[in-house]
Amino acid sequence: MEFTLLWAAVTGAAALWVGTKIWDTDAPDDYFDRLLAGALVGLVVGRLAAMLAQGVNPVTNPLEFIVIRGGVSTPAAAAGSVGWLLWSSRHDIAKLDALASAALLGLAGWHAGCLWRGACLGTASDLPWAWSSPTSDVTRHPVELYAALLLVVAAITVGGLGRRVLLKSGAALALAGLARLATEPMRPSLTGGPVGWYVLAIVVGLGVVIWGGHIGRWVEKRAPT
After folding, report:
1. Which end of the chain lies in a sparser environment, N or C, as judged by fewer CB atoms within 10 Å?
2. Beta-strand (E) ranges in 117-192?
3. Could you give the CA distance from residue 46 to residue 77 in angstroms, rounded to a whole number?
4. Domain boundaries, the chain
5. For residue 27, is it left (φ>0), alpha (ψ between -120 and 50) or beta?
6. Could you give the count of Cα atoms lying within 13 Å of 104 in the half-sphere of its Cβ?
7. pLDDT tens digits, one per residue of 91-103
8. What was the pLDDT predicted at 69?
9. Does an H or E element contain 151, and which?
10. Torsion angles phi and psi, residue 32, rounded to 5
11. Where residue 217 falls among pLDDT bands split at 50, 70, 90?
């Protein structure tokens, strides 16, 4: 039996914890717990979605959840995580900004967990850092590590943004979508991958940034002088 998904999840959780230690300004008391719960919800939702897409019944085949053969649906996992964070922050939506950078770093850790799963490689490449799988002589892009690196850069970028409400949250969503979109052409796929979902993440993220700007100006106008 393979439990490589669990090791990848542990890698993501470790990166998430590191993120909470780096970016903890104005964070809620349950900062790490809330992020970890969001990651777990996303993992469960994404794995179940992948199983259903492959015609595997999770009720009659529960062990297939942890015996990785088909991976995790990225769009479903992202929707599950974002949904949980929105719900858990419903009483103070601005607190989402305090979670943004650490969430991106945790996502980077999940992508880096491809090393445990043996699932880092994408399309063929002759670049010096490309490598081959044990069963092939064809060297390939370590595309999941590319994505992890882009997400680390995104986390640092978001961490340096200002305090305007929802600026970091929207930017994090847009940059996560952009990182996946930029690396998608290097992933082997018969359908081209879920590009539409990544474009949607970018558009929604930018929309949140704009919406947050309007909220901020409205708050400033109502503030006593």
Report:
1. C
2. none
3. 4
4. 3-222
5. beta
6. 32
7. 777 778 888 999 9
8. 55
9. helix 143-159
10. -65, -40
11. low
Sequence-ordered list of residues with C-beta below 8 angstroms from that of 222, at least 6 positions apart, any chain: none
CA distances from 126 to 123, 131, 170, 186 (A): 10, 9, 36, 13
Mean pLDDT of the residues in the chain? 84
Residue of 167, 177, 116, 173 whose CA lies nearest to 147: 177
Q: Which two tokens stand for residue 117?
A: 């799963």
Six-digit token string for 221:
């106008």
Cα 190 from Cα 208, distance rounded (Å)? 32
CA nearest to 122, candidates 153, 104, 145, 151:
145
Q: Is the pLDDT of residue 184 over 60?
A: yes
**Tokens describing residue 152:** 């680390």
Q: Is 29 helix (H, G, I), strand (E, B) or coil?
A: coil
Least Cα distance to 67 among 53, 47, 88 occurs for 47
Nearest to 18 by CA among 109, 122, 151, 96: 109
Both tokens assigned to 198: 């990544």
Of 145, 126, 132, the C-alpha closest to 183 is: 145
Residue 80 burial (10 A CB sphere; 0-12, 13-18, 19+): buried
> What is the C-alpha to C-alpha distance for residues 169 and 111, in angstroms, rounded to an integer?
20
Lowest mean pLDDT among 37-41, 173-177, 180-184, 216-220: 216-220
